[in-house]
Each structure stands twice: as structure tokens, then as C-alpha cells.
Amino acid sequence: MLIRHRRSWEIPERDATPEHLFLNRRSLVAGGAALGAGALAGGPARAFSLFGGGDAAPAAPEAPDPSASLYPAKRNPAYTISGPVTPEVDNTTYNNFYEYGTSKNVSAAAQMLRVRPWTVKFTGLVEKPQEVGIDDLLKAMTLEERLYRHRCVEAWAMQVPWTGFPVKKLVDFAKPLGSAKYIVLKTFKDPKMAPGQRSFILQWPYVEGLTMAEATNDLAFMVTGAYGKPLPKVMGAPLRLAVPWKYGFKSVKSIVEVSFTDKQPDTTWAALAPDEYGFWANVNPAVPHPRWSQATEEVLGTGSRRPTVIYNGYGDEVASLYSGMSKDRLFM
Fewest CB within a 10 Å sphere: which of 38, 114, 191, 260? Predict the structure, then answer.
């Protein structure tokens, strides 16, 4: 008899879901935009476009992605799920990318993103600052595929087949000094290429960060592809972060700078609305968002809800990172 022990992060097959985000009311208030209260009452809701992001015409076709031959990468069996992944069409046509609009339908607008040439700077507390082309960086890494759960702060969940490499390999590549305590990740800033950056909803560029201990945890993953192909633009090409035990807003997209510092960084959402979003942002069903409960999550595409799991099901792998920190706002 074959006895299969389910890993802590595995979920039932019935829970595969399409991606869904909603427009954050606090960000609009901070930006001076007015919203009807009924559109946002009660937590997650469907968003609308403030600046036509979903209707923008795609840019001219680009040359074939020079990294295409690296995909599909070999799947790492240590990072898996129990059921099918979210359908690719749902992830690439119903998405959130504020640089291209507040509508969910930003896939066409995101085609304005030009991913070649693309360079990544390594700055701050490093042995030697450097700037590396994305294709040279990919050549320095061995890509693998991992199946991960994803949990949004807005109480929905899905699962994705990411391709990429561990963040700790990026740390090794950067050679930070021993005094570095945090890694800071920044997106591009180009309002001509990204019309959403002409708005004042968020401060640009988008900034996120992790402690060095979080960044070097085995689960922290730099994403370069999905569904066996280079990462779609709307999902944050050509380089984004995936930290599956944290709420999704920590997973910064389209990274152009990796910096190291000895001070906790002011990350975008935590700086904008510190009463709603914190630096740590670990998934916890017992700590509600100020405007909705986190006890359950919407299983998108099924019309059902399920209980939220502490650390999104990855507690065995990451809970020790936060030992003795009960007084910190670890979960929001």
C-alpha cells in the first residue's frame, strides 16, 4: 500500500483558482480620488480603471525573447501542490498591475512594458556595486519550476507554476556586506512606458523588502517565468519576487534594482497606509485587515470560501524566522 503524506503547503485539487485583486480604497483616498462607498464596502471587490489602463493599445511587437530557450525548466519536486494550477488564461487576462491601470483588464496595457534591454542594479551594502543585463543574470543562474500557493491580502487565493531561482542565489551573486540586514527591491519608473505611474495612487517606483533571513529562506523565489515560458508582462516580467507565506503585495514586479541596507526600508504599501499594511505581511487568519476578516479566503472561480491557513500553509518552513517577535506587527 502506498501511503502519501501531504506536505504542509499542499491544497486539494478542487482549490485551483483564477487570479483576482480589487482596488484598494485607502490608496485612492491617499491619492485624492473619490470612490463610491458601496463599491468597496465589505472587503474584496471588483476594481475599475481610473486612467483607462485596460483599454490602452499594445505596443509594437518585440523581437523574440532571448531567454525563451531556457523554458520549460525542470520542476523541483520539493515544491508542489496537490491539485492543478490556476489556468494560464485567468492569470494573464485578469490581473493587477498598477503601473498600467487600476482595472483588472490590464493585460493589453501591460504590453507597453519593454523587457529588453533590461538591467538590474546591485547597490547599497555590497562588496562592489554593479549593473547586470537580465540575460547575463539568467545565464548565471540555474532555473527551476516550483508550484506555489498565493494568498492576497484582499482575501483571495490561487496557485501558480513559477519558474526562476532562489533569492538566496541572487544574494550570493550580489555579495552583500556582513552589515546588511535587509534586501530592498525596486521596480522601474518610466511614466512614458507605464501610464499608471502618471497617477498619484502610489509613490513610484514601487518598493518592497525582506530581512536577509527571509530572503535566504529556501521558499523565497525570484521569478523569471510562468507556465513553462518567460514571464508574461502583465505578471511582472522579466523579474519579480514570490514569497508564498506573505500577502501578495510583497511580491514586487518588474525589478530593476536590488539594494542592501542595515535599516528596515519604507516599503510602498506600508508607507502609504501603515494602519492597513505592514512591512512583515505574513498570512494569519487570526489578524483581520482593518476593513475585512482574514479568517477565510475566496476560492476564485468556484464561488466558495475556505479557511485561511497560517503562513499560507508554509509555517513549518518559515515560522522560526519570527520567534520572539510577538510584539511586532508580523501579519499586516
Answer: 38
